[in-house]
Specification:
With 71 residues, the chain is mainly beta. The chain is 7% helix and 32% strand.
Length: 71
């Protein structure tokens, strides 16, 4: 976990976004937050997100997955 209350997360909906930021056509695969106690920092103490289109996931197609740093 990070100092700001965020947490690492596997699958679901990102918990560190503003309402409506993520379209219903995308799903979170991984959220990894900054964790200062082990010197793991993403950008300006933010998080990285790996998302994929829902339709691609239904076909087990991970080639459409994208990585985003921060908001």
């Amino acid at each position: 976990a990070s100092d700001d209350g965020g947490h690492h997360q596997l699958l679901g909906v990102r918990d560190r976004s503003y309402p409506g930021d993520e379209p219903a056509t995308k799903r979170l695969l991984l959220q990894c937050v900054t964790q200062p106690d082990i010197d793991m920092h993403w950008g300006d103490d933010d998080a990285i997100y790996i998302n994929a289109p829902t339709a691609a996931l239904a076909k087990a197609d991970f080639s459409k997955a994208t990585l985003t740093l921060g908001d």
